Amino acid sequence: MTTFSMYSASIPVFKQILNSLHAILEKAEAHAAEKKIEPAALLQFRLFPDMLPFTRQIQIACDFAKGAAARLGGLEVPSYEDTEMTFAELKARIVKTLAYIDSVPQASIEGSEERAITTGSGEKTKHFTGQTYLFHYAIPHFFFHATTAYDILRHNGLDIGKKNFIGSY
Questions:
Q1: N- to C-terminal Cα distance for the chain?
Q2: pLDDT by residue (tens digit) across 54-68?
Q3: DSSP secondary structure string, the chain?
Q4: Of 32, 51, 41, which Cα lies nearest the Cα of 148?
Q5: pTM over 0.90
Q6: What residue spans define the domains of the chain?
């Protein structure tokens, strides 16, 4: 009989997609240079006027990964300033996020299924158990923003596909 692992259901998933996003950012940077596209045109692109731009999609995907690792591990969520304006800075944010989630001890995440987790404040306060938070809040939000970032670049002609998004596992 196998047991369920909160760690295996979270950290490796975040790492897989963050590493893919890092590789996609490298391709996007090279694509912009090769096609003589001003990087800001991609970095500030939105799929629709009421959606957040590419840069924010990457920042938020990182925020959900580090937030989930911290909350499931019973730790304070580190705060990152949202100042990235270049591909290099976004790649550095991903590297920083990967380093953080790697620093959270596996033992602190295991058994967090029933851990009380609260997000937001005021009217936006939400209360979860660890498992509900991971599967119904953190992972869906993480994938929404990671996918939207991928879609923005694909829409703008970057030669990437599903294998680039899924990456190595």
A1: 23
A2: 999 999 999 999 999
A3: -----TTTTTHHHHHHHHHHHHHHHHHHHHHHHHTT--HHHHHT--SSTTSPPHHHHHHHHHHHHHHHHHHHTT-PPPP------SHHHHHHHHHHHHHHHHHS-HHHHTTGGG-EEEES-GGG-EEEEHHHHIIIIIHHHHHHHHHHHHHHHHHTT----HHHHH---
A4: 51
A5: yes
A6: 11-166
Whether residue 64 contacts residue 80, with contact meaning beta carbons closer than 8 Å, is answered with no
CATH superfamily for domain 11-166:
dinb family like domain (1.20.120.450)
Q: Give the pair of three-digit tokens for residue 121.
A: 């404040």
Query: In whole angstroms, what is the distance from residue 150 CA to residue 161 CA?
Result: 9
Could you read off the pLDDT of 71-86 as tens digits, one per residue?
Answer: 999 999 999 999 999 9
Alpha-carbon separation of residue 104 from 56, 61, 74, 96 (angstroms):
24, 18, 10, 13
